[in-house]
Amino acid sequence: MPTHKSGNDAFYDNHVSELNAQYLSVKAEDVHEAWLPSLQSNNSAESNLHALDVGTGVGRDAAYLSSLGYKVVAVDKSQAMLEQAKQNFPNQSITWLQDALPSLREVRKLDLKFDVILLSAIWMHIPASERRKCIRILSSLLVPNGKIVITLRHGSFSDGRTAHGVSLDELRLLSQAYGLIFRSPSRAFTQTQKWQSDKLNRQNVTWETAILTLPDDGSGAFPLLRNIVINDAKAATYKVALLRSVLRIAEGHPGAVIQSKSTSSMVAIPLGLVAMYWLKLFKPLIDNFNMPQNSNPNKGLGFVKESGWLQLSGLTNNDVFVGAIYMETHKQVHRTLLDITRTIKNMPAKYITLPGTDTCVFEVDRLRSRAPKTSLLLDNNYLMGLGTLYVPRNIWRTLSDYSCWIEPALTNEWLRVMQGFEAKTGRSYSLEQYHLALKWEDQTRSTNKVKQRVSILQKQQDIVCTWGKTKLNKRYDIDHTFPFARWPNNDLWNLVPTKPAVNRNKSDKLITEQRLLNSKEEVMHFWQQAWQEEQRLFFTQANMALPDLSAENTDFDSVFEAMLSQRDRIKETQQLVDWA
User: Fold this and answer.
1) How many whole angstroms separate alpha carbon 128 and alpha carbon 102?
2) Least confident of 112-121, 177-186, 379-388, 484-493
3) In this predicted model, which residue has the larger pLDDT, 217 or 256?
4) How far is the C-alpha of 445 from the C-alpha of 439, rounded, in Å?
5) What whole-number distance in Å separates Cα of residue 345 and Cα of residue 398?
6) What is the rounded distance in angstroms from the CA atom of residue 302 to the CA atom of residue 438?
7) Cα–Cα distance between 137 and 198 in angstroms, integer?
8) What is residue 376's three-state secondary structure?
């Protein structure tokens, strides 16, 4: 630690006695009563629970966690505060370390994972520019189901200390970036008031609490995925691209699972479908924004070939979807997908391994199919003809059930890796450009086909609002039955015409089963009228996206029944607000 200190560091070193009396005047269980009910405790001598108290000060909270049976590591930047803490609690089994965020270098040397990490009254001292790194480091120290507890102080200091603005919204966004579940028990605890009052009775000080939890389904898949995404640097953007592609299929294409090839431990999916989403992901990054995908600006990408990718400059990521038909470019699209399957097999699938082993997480059986003679249809038969990707069943379930937490973490990691290439490649991009390039698709453009069809039908017959059952006029919206923001799907079966006011009211809520059943006649009528001449596209999309449908299904009623099952699944995994 440096000998000369200023600002907050000097304050804490020079006011140990005063702060010691102040902090010990209130009990830890009173200060933290809003979140303590969520805390595990184990007073047995064999307890394996570990806690990290970051910014421990005079040790009050560390000692309390120790009394609950935790093996505690307590750290503080101030050596003077640590010495006071040791004097206060000499008989407690606590590891005291001089360390600080954002690096927590000494803590990481211990090679421990923690069930709870407490940051009490220190977040306001951390500059906004360092907070993303802090959450990244802290999240890597959690066990599955472990939690980071952060108390937020609102109110300025009058004693020379400096503070930066804090908010739950900021922590909510940071939790999403690193695949953590966010909740704030303080609002439920206080019921009528937004913030908790100060236990030291300071009139201008109030508090909020945020809990960031590392989710886990008990299978071990979630921590494995986080290790691959955040800690494993091999084949950086390829690694994330493969995971994002498989995630999209697990979340949006339960019907794509190849039942006949699956085993008790693996789920088999069409390798061509993975390649299709790979193409969809990289298209804007490479063609629109020219964003580097490795640190060497002179090194090309294995799937960008003259005979394939470079012949598809007119193709956008919105032109790549299940059921798409290619005529003039069918050979080039086929060549590109073959090049992608080779890259997937030789790069990310080869180098994504179980921690500390050479065992590959994913298995690839690649087939060299011939290009169609006159046109190419991205249907189940074609996509299966390019090969098979085998995904461990526990990872498949985790990708499906936790997609809303994993997707932001994958996007954030891809963004971070590309930012790391800026200095070496001499290119620089704004955050807005990065996020725009990493979007799956343009939602407005992808609903144009349905809008055009509704306009044609309106010239022939009355079209009603699917949910309101009243006649539509010239102003109407195309609504995603299952909200696009939480389950991104632009298939024909998921898009229906509604009045703008109804669409705004529904927003990102999930339609209830009863409301969907009440509108079954309107949904079915629109499908049959709008897509009678494009049934091949309609059923190709529905059969791959919805559960319990065969690849040969051509029955509209079966699609509706599968929609009801999918609604239940989305409700269970994403916990959306109902729209009744």
Assistant:
1) 11
2) 177-186
3) 256
4) 13
5) 22
6) 20
7) 29
8) strand
DSSP character string of 231-264: I--TTHHHHHHHHHHHHHHHHH-GGG--GGG--S
**Token pair recorded at residue 571:** 């409700």
HSE-CB at 232 with a 13 A cutoff on CA atoms is 24
| Greater model confidence, 565 or 159 | 565
> Model confidence at 328, in pLDDT bands (50, 70, 90)?
very high
* Burial class, 562, CB count within 10 angstroms (exposed 0-12 / middle 13-18 / buried 19+): buried
Query: What is the layout of strands, in order, in the sheet containing 363-366?
Result: 266-270, 387-392, 363-366
pLDDT of residue 445: 72
> Nearest Cα to 117, choosing from 68, 58, 74?
74
Helix-strand-coil percent breakdown of the chain, rounded to 5? 50, 15, 40
Q: Which has more confidence, 512 or 195?
A: 512
- Amino acid 265 reads S
Q: With contact defined as beta carbons under 8 Å apart, do 107 and 97 qualify?
A: yes
Query: Which two structure tokens, joined as six digits, stand for 360?
Result: 């590959």
Q: Which residue from 561, 227, 238, 179 is spatially nearest to 401, judged by alpha carbons?
A: 179
- Report yes or no: 329 and 315 within 8 Å, Cβ to Cβ: yes
**Euclidean distance between CA atoms 140 and 143, whole angstroms:** 8
Q: Distance between CA atoms of 105 and 102, rounded to whole angstroms?
A: 9
Residue 280 has pLDDT above 90, yes or no: yes
What digits encode the pLDDT tens for the residues 173-191?
Answer: 899 888 888 988 854 433 3
Can the peptide bond before residue 102 be classed as cis, meaning omega within 30 degrees of 0?
yes
Q: What percent of the chain has pLDDT over 90?
A: 63
First to last CA, the chain: 60
Cα–Cα distance between 544 and 521 in angstroms, integer?
23
The pLDDT confidence band at residue 248, using thresholds 50, 70 and 90, is: very high
Range in 92-96, 310-314, 455-459 with the lowest mean pLDDT: 92-96
CB 522 within 8 A of CB 502: no
User: What residue type is 60 in one-letter code?
Assistant: R
Residues 356-410: pLDDT tens digits? 888 999 999 999 888 899 999 999 999 999 999 999 999 998 898 888 778 888 9
C-alpha to C-alpha distance for 579 and 508, rounded to whole angstroms: 9
Let me know the angle formed at the C-alpha of 212 by 165 and 47, rounded to the nearest 5 degrees: 130
Question: CA angle, corner 173, sides to 232 and 241, nearest 5?
Answer: 35
Tokens describing residue 188: 């439920």
